[in-house]
Amino acid sequence: MSSVIISELPAMDATRFQHTPYYCEENVYLLCKTLCESGVADETGSDLFVVFISNERKQVPLWHQKASTRADGIVLWDYHVICVQRKKESDSEPLVWDLDSTLPFPSPLASYVTETIQPSFQLFAEYQRFFRVVHAPLFFKHFASDRRHMKAPDGSWIAQPPPYQPIVAQDGVLHNLSEYTAMSATDTLSSLDPDTVSEAISQKLGVFVSHSQLQDLFTKLP
């Protein structure tokens, strides 16, 4: 698989996209929509995948994050969401679109994994990262958030919400974010054979893999 030559891509400035701090799932939803509308991605989002990163403890270390106050850019998120673009009829490497990263926008998947996930860094088991990969067309159809997770017990906002109305699923569901962020190591795919991957990616909640399976997954997607 050949490397992506970033200079061949349309110049993308992360600041042109809607971004509300601490609402990464909504940011990525709108990012995917904009990529489709601008022609950078297929108009249906068929080459886009929404990736939730978390674990059972809701403590995942990621490097090169804009929210960090450290030189290495590390942040311990409860969860994070990115977009991965994989063009079916291309030998180019999948691209990661992460609005909260200080890395190039977009970044080749391999370099993003090396720099942001840092799989060679030895972590305690409870901090291992898991990935829920959801096909964007299904995400557009099913995802909903009424932002309840960002409210304190007294009803005040933990972080100021986006200025637009909450995202509602096509079937009228108001909130299902927790279904996407729920993660258990026992749910990871035992095999990345094409049939198993094809069946899983056609489901609402997509494919659930470990960090060691992530890059291989994008070579097996239909």
Outline the structure in words.
- Pfam families: Nt_Gln_amidase.
- Keywords: Hydrolase.
- Its EC number is 3.5.1.122.
- Residues 19-217 form the Protein N-terminal glutamine amidohydrolase alpha beta roll domain.
- It is built from six helices and eight strands.
- It is of the alpha+beta class and 222 residues long.
- The strands form two sheets. The chain has a six-stranded antiparallel sheet with strand order 6-5-4-1-7-8. A two-stranded antiparallel ribbon has the order 2-3.
- The chain has one domain: Protein N-terminal glutamine amidohydrolase, alpha beta roll (C8orf32 fold).
- The protein is globular and about 50 Å long.
Task: Average the pLDDT over all residues and give the rounded result.
Answer: 93
Helix amount, in percent? Answer: 10-25%
Number of helices: 6
* Global shape: globular
Q: Taking Cα atoms only, what radius of gyration do you get, to the nearest Å?
A: 17 Å
The helix/strand class is: alpha+beta
Tally the structural domains: 1
Taken in chain order, the helices and strands follow as HEEEEEEHEHHHEH
**CATH homologous superfamily (4th level) name:** Protein N-terminal glutamine amidohydrolase, alpha beta roll
The CATH class, by name, is Alpha Beta
Residue windows where pLDDT falls under 50 for at least 5 positions: 1-8
* Fraction in beta strands: 15-25%
Protein name: Protein N-terminal glutamine amidohydrolase
Family: Belongs to the NTAQ1 family.
EC number: 3.5.1.122
Subunit structure: Monomer.
